[in-house]
Amino acid sequence: MKKNSKNRKYLIVGSGAREHAMAWALSLNPYTQKVFISPGNFGMTFEPKCEIVKFSNFEQMINFAKENQIDTILVGPEQPLVEGFVDLCKMQKIDVFGPPAKSAMLEGSKIFAKNLMKKYGIETARFETFDNFKKAADFLSSAGKYPIVVKADGLAEGKGVFIVQSYEEAMNILDLLFNKSKFGKSGEKIVIEECLQGYEASIIVLSDGKSFKPLISAKDHKKAFDNEQGPNTGGMGAISPNPLLTEDDMQKLEKRIILPTFNALKKEGLLYSGALYFGVMITKDGPFLLEYNVRFGDPETSSILFSLDTDFSTCIDACMNGYLEKLDLSWKEGFSVTLVAASKGYPDKYEVGYEIAGYKDFIGEKSKNNLSKIFFAGVDYKDNKLVTNRGRVLNIVSRGKTLEEARKNVYQDIEKIKFDNLYYRKDI
Ligand code: AMP
Ligand code: GLY
Fold first, then answer.
1. Residue 291 beta carbon below 6 angstroms from any ligand 1 atom
2. Can you list the pairs that 137-145 forms with residues at least 24 positions away whose Cβ atoms lie under 8 Å?
3. 25 or 159: whose pLDDT is higher?
4. Does residue 52 fall inside a structural domain?
5. What separation in Å is there between the alpha carbon of 3 and the centre of ligand 2?
6. Which atom of ligand 1 is nearest to the CA of 125?
7. Alpha carbon distance 149, 161 (integer Å)
8. Are 259 and 215 contained in the same domain?
9. 132 within some domain
10. I need a labelling partner for 293 at 20 to 30 A (CA). Which of 29, 160, 201, 383 fits?
């Protein structure tokens, strides 16, 4: 993007609430003329400057970007990053926010990430890696301590991590991954690691390829059910800032995990302009890194961008033009809380196609008069109705001067949203 261009056009790749939040935040800048989202979802079209566009391959998307003089492409989800979309854009001299394929391996392969952490002394859970059932089973028969964590190496939409309580349960998971190919190629290699105790924090860090800047912290809620019960999901709710993260823990995290990571990326030639997400466990011995994501998190991004006071479009401009170091990030006072309204049964089996009602006060211009805002995810438009079409249907986010106030607001407003089989956690 030309620095501080006054006629900005963006193309966002993705279709979830994260991409909706990014599109909304970019469109707040008066210089933003248009935000295209591909493939997007119908809910995004309620934003005045947003338009959804559909392509069947990367090449079509790149041609569109060239023909429409898109300033910057932003990639939301991990899949296109791991598949090398950024590399293709760069070959065509298109500005793109996100990592090339070799850096995206930080998320694309847990083994790659864990080996990097080990090589550079970045605190993480002790681990072993395996590429077949027998070796993993042999290891487990002598690994006495449970719970233990089994992770598919490759991408699995946040569902490839299992915290197992017994040897029998662990063997079932190995069987699912190696013999029943539950995650296809992603599960052909695995990590088995020690289970850490503590509380989790999500820290998303912006980078311009030279310097980096952490955004406000967040707390994700990955389990499907209240009180951290049930299977892992892509995320069921997020609070920002993370109410549990102390100043002291944040300093340790920066010193022991974030800074050494950026030094490691520099040495390995993996730095990029984009976002790097650190999923950490704060234990009684300090912070340990669970994972990297090479993108913004979902649902964290809804809460983070709702709290951001600095113009988001300028943040992206700073990452694309190398002046991030000079950029001051400021945040609104208080807390933002996001609830994910899901289809009951997610992340396993669920039904879709139900009409959504009660959302109109929380979208487009009307949302300006409201404390809460909706970012849509799994929705479609059929027979003149907005309907559910995936597991995570929409995010609703609200603010408050205190966490209690933000919670009260968001739980009050989600009551106004109606669709059959609506499910959300009551304890975010
Ligand atoms: P990951 O995709 O590696 O972040 O794992 C998904 C979720 O599984 C994390 O957010 C944690 O809730 C949990 N998890 C992953 N690794 C561990 C670990 N070593 N100890 C405890 N919980 C873990
Ligand atoms: N909320 C976690 C993620 O985006 O992977």
1. yes
2. 137/171, 137/174, 139/192, 140/167, 140/170, 140/171, 140/174, 140/192, 141/167, 143/192, 145/194
3. 25
4. yes
5. 30
6. 19
7. 7
8. yes
9. yes
10. 29
Domain boundary pick from 171, 194, 217:
194
In the reported structure, the alpha carbon of residue 161 is separated from the centroid of ligand 1 by a whole-number distance in angstroms of: 7
CATH (domain of 377): 3.90.600.10
Question: Is 66 part of a structural domain of the chain?
Answer: yes
* Rounded Cα–Cα distance for residues 229 and 219 (Å): 16
pLDDT band at 2 (very low <50, low <70, confident <90, very high): low
pTM over cut 0.90: yes
Q: Give domain status of residue 27, yes or no.
A: yes
Distance 18 CA to ligand 2 centre (A): 10
pLDDT (0 to 100) of residue 1: 52
- Could you say which of 60, 83, 100 is where a domain stops? 100
Residues counted in the chain: 428
Which ligand does the CA of 223 lie closest to?
1
For 349-400, what is each residue's pLDDT tens digit? 999 999 999 999 998 777 777 889 999 999 999 999 999 999 999 999 999 9
Structural domains of the chain, count: 4
> Is the Cβ atom of 232 under 6 angstroms away from ligand 1?
yes
Asked if residues 356 and 379 have their Cβ atoms less than 8 Å apart, the reply is yes
